[in-house]
Amino acid sequence: MILLLALVCNALGSVCFKKGASRPRPNGHAGKIRRLLAFAADMLSNRMVLLGLLLQMGAIIGWLAFISRVALSFAFPLSSVSNVAILLASHYLLGEYISPRRWSGVMLILGGIALIANA
Prior knowledge:
By secondary structure, the protein is mainly alpha-helical. Helices cover 78% and strands 0% of the residues. It starts with a helix and ends with a helix. The model has no long low-confidence stretch (mean pLDDT 89).
């Protein structure tokens, strides 16, 4: 249950980051450093990015709680489920296209996780 909470927080946090970072911004003619600083300031004042940060903090706390209870050699391979969760979230929440080849990769990841979980 703790791992599931961490995975959901991670996936939703990533979606929030994507939405916040994808807002259109003026390019301007400022130098690279100035543009980078302006981008950082914009991100730190962006509600979606801040929500993403909170969700990611929840994911980290959940992950720490999970690894405090199980062997890291067992837990770490299970963390690859986060890749699947983010792919699903990007497809269903952001409307991103997932190719059949990528879905096949997801099935391979899930098969590997099943092998590890039953070992």
